[in-house]
Automatic annotation (TrEMBL):
Assigned keywords, A-Z: Membrane, Sugar transport, Transmembrane, Transmembrane helix, Transport
Family membership noted in the UniProt record: Belongs to the major facilitator superfamily. Sugar transporter (TC 2.A.1.1) family.
Membrane topology of this protein: Multi-pass membrane protein
Protein name in the entry: Major facilitator superfamily (MFS) profile domain-containing protein
Signal peptide: none
Residue stretches spanning the membrane: 43-63, 83-100, 112-131, 137-159, 171-189, 195-216, 280-302, 314-336, 343-365, 385-408, 420-443, 449-469
PROSITE patterns assigned: MFS, SUGAR_TRANSPORT_1, SUGAR_TRANSPORT_2
Record PANTHER family: MAJOR FACILITATOR SUPERFAMILY (MFS) PROFILE DOMAIN-CONTAINING PROTEIN, PTHR48021
Entry keyword Membrane: yes
The organism of origin for this protein: Riccia sorocarpa
Any Pfam family matching the protein: Sugar_tr
Record-annotated Major facilitator superfamily (MFS) profile domain positions: 47-473
Gene Ontology CC annotation, any one: membrane
Cell location: Membrane
Amino acid sequence: MAPVAAHSGTAEQQTSLKTPLLQKIQGRSRHLTREESRIRETWVYISTFTAVMGIAAQGFLMGYTSPVQKAMIDSLNLSVSEFSVFGSLITVGAMLGSIVSGQLGDWLGRKGAMVVATLPIIVGSALIAVAESKMPLYIGRLLSGAGAGIFSFIVPLFIGEIAPRHLRGTLGTMQQLANTLGIGLVYLGGLFINWRYLAASGIIPCLLCLVGITLIPESPRWLAKKEKAEELEAALKKLRGDKYDVSKELAEMQQTVEAAKLEPKAKFRDLFRRRLARPLIAGVGLQFLQQFSGINGVMLYASTIFSRAGVSNANMASLALGGLQVVMTVAAAGLMDKAGRRLLLMVSASGMALSSFLVGFTFYLTDVEEHSYSRGMNVFIDILALASLLVYIAAFSLGMGPIPWLLLGEIFPSQVKGAAGSMATLTNWSCAWIVTLAFNNVFEWSPAGAFWIFAVACVSTVFFVVLFLPETRGRTLEEIEASFNY
């Protein structure tokens, strides 16, 4: 990752500039101020909706393999291994996209990066729709993944930078909500639509995103970093409304940028220095644990899991899974700025740990004594497996789904946000690739073992949150940055 440009300055200069800013930030109340109550949130909502259309496309792409597996294998004469490679290539492409996402966001702005992200998804979806052999499938999946990787970092960054502090948690969950809606729509479409037309349908959210980008303002914090004063003021006024006095927020952003200029020139290795290592460990660690909780393995191959668990209509069960994820993500949106990030993460990870253990236990019972149970016992095992999977998805949607991405837009200092965010996003997609590529083989070897591995990762998450994650609810981005720096 290329270094972020900055200017040097003396210790006295840094202290004189930073100390008043820190005092000002720390003195701000976590509650909604009278001035903040005047904010008109219309354009914040429109901007958020536009951005998360890219995430809806990502969810559509991630869930695509579940309803079409049998149809694609039969149509193109693919082996299970070849289909597994096809499924996993989206994560390889996303790894590549995540590497450049920070640079694109810094160079082109958040809006420009989102425009770039839509292009490979459109091309990739079209290639999959017309493919007659495995190679176009692989190329299309790889391209689609690259766009998804860019979106996965730029969208939470953009939302975190445009949202007023009292809405940042709620709006941050819209990314996960859009992702689950995308998954739910592809599950629903898979019941009625040919796999080729279904692939082409993934272009629609990207087109909506492109239209919206022409209307919404750029991120004020990116404009402040680029010293575009007039555009910055105009963007803030559009996002906050005519009745809100933007002068204080404007001055705070500009002062933070000036303070960042006095920092030594940031390089990639600087991410591992003590002052920056704390947010990096928190951000990267959560991305790692989110993926090894097993969510992408479950969602990409939900139909296969349900079939193995004895559910008669696996595709309908998968659709119910996607619908539950939407409902629970809406619930999380209402709780995010009330319960806080830490509590929701711990509750979420605990619920996932218990449900993963129970799913694994039902598979263990089935594999050990498959033909020895009574009919009533077999029905009980099937119900327990289905209920545990539903609890797993509900718990994930409550915290482990939205919060790691929400924190990417909150915890990293502005001068290294691109590099640190790219590293965290790359970690997520790298782990997702490992999980999606290995899941089918591990699941065939031991369904119980696969879910017990996920349970261990979820238990580890609880301890990780206790040790490394600060609460960010109710704080401005400047306050969060200051809490790590001083």
